[in-house]
Amino acid sequence: MPPITQRVPSLVRSIATGAIGFAVVSLCVFATVAFAERWMYRTLTVLGAYLAWTVLFILLGGAVFGSLAVVRWRLPRFYLLFALAFFAYAAGWMVAYFTVRNTAGEVVGSLAGSVLMTIVFAAGFGAVRSTVKLSAVLFLSNFLAYFLGAAILNSLRSQTGMLLFGVVYGLFFGAGIGAVLQMVQQEPPISEHAT
Q1: What integer is the mean pLDDT of 170-179?
Q2: CA dihedral angle for residue 99, residue 29, residue 163, residue 177, rounded to 10 degrees
Q3: For the chain, which has fewer Cβ within 10 Å, the N-terminal or C-terminal residue?
């Protein structure tokens, strides 16, 4: 019996699923920032709070993006890949931000985090030749997500502003992650090029 193959979702579907699904995920995570940030910093420390938010993004985001992975990467294997990718992103972002600081740290963090996340996805799906292109897609979506969201927060300076930041961040970054997942699955693995 031939193996069952599942078609990779279209780019439009991947972007829409990523944007809508990750907007909901991000809204949930940013709600904890809006309503419990001080408590989390006091109870967990700053590092502990960031780790908790990272774990929330991984647990909730893995379910959203796992729906875009073809059979070879179905849950729970995709959860492991997504956890590694998102943890690499978060680590790159935090190290850059806490080292460089301010807006420059946010820009460097967006770039470093996006590149690290892309490297994990590209390696996991055997699409390393596309790392530069995929990193550009992810960085652009991440940059827009973060800075448009931050602009809304800065203009409103309220819990509502933080929630809207979460929605905008999820929409744009989720769209980028969805696009990258679609593209890494469209590229034939390196082993297929050798035959």
Answers
A1: 98
A2: 80
A3: N
